[in-house]
Each structure stands twice: as C-alpha cells, then as structure tokens.
Specification:
Length: about 375
Amino acid sequence: MKYAIRAARVFDGARDIGSPQVVVEDGKIVELARDVADLPVADLGDVTLLPGLVDSHVHLGFDPLGVATELPDDTEDVVLARMRANATEALRAGITTVRDLGDRSYLSLQVRDTGPEVLVSGPPVTTTGGHCWFLGGEADGLDGIRKAVTERVERGVDVVKIMATGGSITPGSSPFDQQYTTEELRAAVEIAHDAGIPVTVHAHGAAGIKAAVEAGVDSIEHAFFLAPGGLAVDWDTVDLMVRKGIYVSTTTARMPTAEPAFPVSTQLRQNFGRMRELGVRLVCSSDAGVGQFKRFDSLPHGIIEFGEVLGFGNAEALASATSVAATMCGVGERKGRIAAGYDADLLAVAGNPLVDLKALLDVRAVIRAGQQL
C-alpha cells in the first residue's frame, strides 16, 4: 500500500528539512511531498521523524548479563532465540539496522530480517587461541587468513571482521598485543575488496591499530590505543587514518552509569574528541552484548554522549548513527537517510533532538520497511 507519513519535523540524516510528508510504498520511500491529498496519511503529530538508527557493532548472540565464553555451550535454538530477542530490544529503541560483528556458526545469517536488518560478519577471524577463538574463527598465517576470508565471502557475509589485537573478554588474551601482521591483514583486505565486501578490525593496542591502518581496512572497532597503565595514542597513525579515510567505530555507547565504564573512560572520550577535530570519521556504536551496561537499546545514549562529551553538534551526532554509520557499513545508498529510493526505516521521537539529543529516549513510533511496529 502507498501512504504518507506526516510529522512536525523531519531530520533527513544530515539536516533539518522542515516538514515534508514522506511517501512510502513497498517498504521504500518513494518521494517527499507537500501535497498528498490522494493518499492515506499516518499523522504522527508533534514529533521529529528521522532515519532509523544504525548500530554498527553488536553481538546478538551474547547475553549482556552472561559470559561470552559460555556461548559455545548453548544449543543453536537457545542462541537463535536470544538473537531474536536482542534484535527486538534494539528495534524498539529505533535501531532499524544492526551489524553483528561476531557470532557462532554463522547463525546471524538466519536472523537477517528478524526485526532490524542484520548485517552479518559470521565468526570473527582470529589467531589460534586468540581473542574470541571460542566462536570458531581461528586462522593463522597468510594461507590461513586467506582461506578464512574466502570462506566468509562464499557464505555471503556483509562484512569481514578480524581481530587485529587481543581483547579483554577472552582469558589469556591481551588487548595490547598484535595478532596479525600488516601483510596478513592486507591479504584479507585484498580478497574481501575484490568481492566488494568491507573489512573491519577489532583493535585496542597501538601496534594492531597501526597495522590495520597500513593494510587499508575500511574501519576500526574501538581504536582505544590501550597500553599498560592507560592510553597511549599514536597521533601519526591517527593522521594516517584521516588521510586514508578510515572510519572509527567507537563502541562507546552504553546505558548510563554512576561510574565511568573503566578507569580511563574520560581520557578515552577526550581522545575521540581530538580525533574528531583532526578529521577522523567517527561512528557511534555500542558493542551491545559484551557487558551489563551494553544493552541492545543503548545506542541512543551514545549519541547523546557524542554531543555532550565529544563535541559533536546535534545534527552531526545524529548523523554518526544514521547516514555516516550506514555509509561505513556499505549500505549508505539505501539506509540512514530520508530520501527517495531509501528503505522506509524510520524513527519518530517526541520533541526535537536537534535541540536536545535526549529526545531520542522518548520513542513514539518505529517504522521498519514501511511497517509501523
């Protein structure tokens, strides 16, 4: 059915465009119009309509209140049920697209259209015994990483995820330590890019981040520059990120807490603010599932923080989880904007987030592929 959506204000993913009516048909936006006298109209009232949010880093199979290393012991049915429930929680918050960056046995392929659209990486590629090895993506050396990436291409993933450093949720793994060489990462990038698939890497420590940037990956998850005792940003590597146009998915969104997420949280956010000033393309994301404050509806809180702490203007903060996030994820031609030809994935919130980002927390309607929840 063809119909129009009316709202008091419309943010198109980049700016306020006034109050055109959004005409939808077959799950797509077909036009923005002033006169829709011949169409049924869904009048949402005094709300701001914006593109559905894009959370570019989640783990649908994880239980925020559980332990990630327990995931391999769960049955497939249990994991799939959890993934669908977590996806529903995200959708209710207005998150209409999520990018799952680490599952088991490619189970996320089975929930691609369960609630939000799910962009899939499959099991992350990691070294033997490396970060998140328990998800089944172990691969060593040039031959191993080439085989692993080729397998993911053949499976039909939307993105290749590689663990360039260790991580904190894996016993025996260190977030400071580099797992793959620049040469190995470059081989992965070449195979994925030949297939038209982006590559993102998990990287905490400076050496792993530098290797990923030199290898030409599309985006870096975290990019905290963790070092023993705190943070040690390599600003030369940051400059190279800017020159290569590499995105950083900050994974900083979390539910509000009385205490910082970890001891260097304040400095981390200051560092991201400086990266923004230098021209790094920052995307707000959550890493939902990895801890009790990383719920699947936490992304709006991260957008608010982008405005309050990282120095983003409100429109820029909103874009970081709509149009900019969609572009980073390789779906910017159909997601993250309110424009003709784009998916009718929409979020309506009370008030005006261009004035107060906290308006994102008062959800009045979520529309996914043209259908209101």
